[in-house]
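Changelog-linked ticket: coenzyme A example.
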Amino acid sequence: MDIPLQAVIRGTGAYVPARVLTNHDLERLVDTSDEWILARSGIRERRLAADDEQTSDLACRAARRALEMAELKPADIDLVIVGTATPDMPFPSTACLLLDKLGHAGAAAFDLAAGCSGFLYGLGAATDMIRAGSARTALVVGAEILSRIIDWQDRGTCVLFGDGAGAVVLQGERNNTGRGILSNHLHGDGGFGSLLALRGGGSRYPASHATVDRRLHYVAMQGNELFKVAVRCLTETAREAMSHNNITADDIDLFIPHQANMRIIRAVAGRCGIPMERVFTNLEHYGNTSAASIPIALDEALRGDRIRSGDLILLDAFGAGLTWGSSLIRW
Ligand code: COA
């Protein structure tokens, strides 16, 4: 009997910039307070990229750490996917710029626009390309410098986001141990797109003095509405991954949801029946790093011994688009 081809995570890596912006620092920028931010979101501080850092620089540092753990070289990679809402520039893609910074050429490389779900979408695409035989070793990255698209005069958004990057190296492996990415479940609904959008700079509102005056190059968000949809979608797709694999919440060793808001995470975990002891969170220190949030959390969980061989890991993402999705992994 044929041994199935699985996509297996060989290494993880993360990088967050050195500069810390605390809630108290934000109190000096906008009308807010440490108590309000902590109570409403669970965030205490976030990282900000240095002026000379670009998204591909953050991605490169995270990618090198993932490659090091995998004991592989950039030349081994034949597929690069970067999930990002904040590319270095519209083109060339951050994936191509990253490939160049890694000193490698020739691999397939593309960016993926799925908001905060970008990493999970990338994981899904890479899994399928590996299983189909069109890639052997994939680098999947979530990298963001959200501080460059945040309106620092808007207290409703500027307190929530941070910069960072996370990466995984995936490889095809024939095994019948059940190890690898078990399933990916991806969804989108443009009908809710206006709840979280950056409208300027594209074909609808090309960059002009008027778009700058109207602050269209910044994130605009309806937080309250988004909160409710996020809880519903994250819950539905987490349950979808469990029912697809015929498991229950008791089987999940670690749940790693998108790190947007502690209240969202508690609500989703509660609805799915996963106790908080088996939920990984780090948003207290980084805020919402969009596509980078899940791979940074995965890397911290792994390096912090929260993941052991054989564990069942559930990833759960939600973001602009709207997009959402889940992945179940046997480690
Ligand atoms: N500091 C102090 N007050 C603030 C504030 C801040 N940083 N931001 C908003 N407020 C005020 C509002 O102006 C409002 O005041 P008002 O009642 O006088 O109008 C009040 O706080 C309540 O605002 P509301 O938006 O209803 O608060 P909330 O409980 O929904 O919390 C969010 C706001 C943004 C924290 C919450 O809605 C959220 O996290 N939503 C999801 C956002 C998200 O995760 N986005 C990314 C998805 S990938």
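Closing comment: Example verified and attached. Residues 223-244 form the longest helix (22 residues). The first strand starts at residue 5 and ends at 15.
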